[in-house]
Amino acid sequence: MKPFIPQLVYFEPEALNYPLGQELKQKFEKMNIEIRETTSHNQVRGIPGETELQRYRNAKSTLVVGIRRTLKFDTSKPSAEYAIPLATGCMGHCHYCYLQTTLGSKPYIRVYVNLDEIFSQAKKYIDERAPEITRFEAACTSDIVGIDHLTHSLKKAIEFIGATEYGRLRFVTKYEHVDHLLDAKHNGKTRFRFSVNSRYVIKHFEPGTSSFEARLEAARKVAHAGYPLGFIVAPIYMHDGWEEGYLELFERLSEQLAGVNTPDLTFELIQHRFTKPAKAVIQKRYPKTKLDLDESKRKYKWGRYGIGKYVYQDDDAKRLEETLKHYIAQFFPEAEIQYFT
Fold first, then answer.
1. What pTM does this model have?
2. Strand 190-196 to strand 229-236: parallel, antiparallel, or no bridges (unpaired)?
């Protein structure tokens, strides 16, 4: 698929005080993209559309260039200590995505140009924890690879982390646009992960993302460039024929990676889950979705922040976990399964 190009761009005035802000403004002017001004990347108004659904879809192709003012990083998921804030939002239309509710009324894509300040804060976190390793996740609130051909923020972050002794970087993507990252001086300190799934899930629930084949071709390039490689299978979803669907996934994965050196390949396994607010948003934004959001088939699980989510019943979750772990052992016996959740 073609790399993402926004249809509308907003700038915070302060963003033009930074080299990346100036560079992006010149780039979008040359591309004849409409440019507007906004006082804050959190208060973007005037996105076109007659209905809320139209405005949502237009927001997904709107880019906002701003300053990251809160430099206290969020603590990240179990696989990293911190989330490094390079961007927020995504151009993809994955029906199940948790950003549907976490971004709420702000589904537009935001990029931050004060990279030196962001990296300076990351360095403080690394120094505080040294000599322990400090891991940063760059894709908690966006698919950063999908927009990095425009900003090269991720490439700068890879090289920043590559120059540290105790820093590590990780991110996940559904996009193929990795060519500009292949010559980055990563020094083996960035793990490049791709999100993969069964043919059914990609076809029905992941519009606006690269095909499985394109993701795998990108994974081959990344591995050849010496990056540590990983795959996230998420969300693992019990559709009709799911056992065969996920078996085919690992067969295809194995075929595509034949002959590629992947000495420390990792897998992360995440079952499908949803919250009540997410269900309401998904059904409003994707009214024809085939996503099964029937609470009666699920188990209610309390989350860390007091917000419960619906996951598969224990027996179903156990079947999913055992089946996928069996497939990985069959096709990738040397790989590490980091977790199933």
1. 0.95
2. parallel
